[in-house]
Amino acid sequence: LSLDDPDGSLSSWNSRDATPCNWYGVTCAGDASNTTVTALDLSDTNIGGPFLANVLCCLPNLLSINLLNNSINQTLPLDISLCHNLRHLDLSQNLLTRLLPATLPLLPNLRYLDLTGNNFSGPIPDSFGTFQNLQVLSLVSNLLEGTIPPSLGNVSSLKMLNLSYNPFFPGRIPPELGNLTNLEVLWLTQCNLVGVIPTSLRNLNKLQDLDLALVINIRVQKT
């Protein structure tokens, strides 16, 4: 009831139904007598309104939320951390603003986080270096400031890190990123990078795709 639904994408959502398992975008697991909501996919449905963490996080077995390419607005609340079992969160191409919630790393099972194409501002929280199982982190095309935090080098599970197209303050590539030995994709395109390319990046033996394009002033460090 808190969402705008101009295209009627949620017309099958009827509160009189015994379960929501036949509603559009809802996936359940279990048999007919024991069903539980495990995923919500409302991507490309043109819905709008706030992200209702206090509602969605009441679903104890929710593993995946995909709201890509909608008009989800306001900000991502701190109580997103109550979605304890969440593994996949895609809120890309929405209208979210203000700071990235520092509580996101409290989701112990989160593996995929895509917040691309929003209007988040301020710095990347240092707490983002405490993700336990995150494999994909994409913060592309926001309004993020500060510099790339060295603490990201602690997320050894990362396979893809994409921070491209943010108006960061001029800063170096943290040498600590060389600790991400599972990294396959590293994109820092147009991130106001300066200084040297740290030799620690040669430790990224699984790296397949590296993009440091559109830098201000960067050079290769001699070994």
TrEMBL record:
Localization terms from the record: Membrane
GO cellular component, one term: membrane
Membrane topology note: Single-pass type I membrane protein
Chief localisation class: membrane
Domain of life: Eukaryota
Domain Disease resistance R13L4/SHOC-2-like LRR: 64-214
Keyword annotations: Glycoprotein, Leucine-rich repeat, Membrane, Repeat, Signal, Transmembrane, Transmembrane helix
Keyword hit for Kinase: no
Domain (Leucine-rich repeat-containing N-terminal plant-type): residue spans on this chain: 2-28
Entry-linked PANTHER family: LEUCINE-RICH REPEAT RECEPTOR-LIKE PROTEIN KINASE PXC1, OS03G0145102 PROTEIN
Family: Belongs to the RLP family.
Protein name, per record: Leucine-rich repeat-containing N-terminal plant-type domain-containing protein
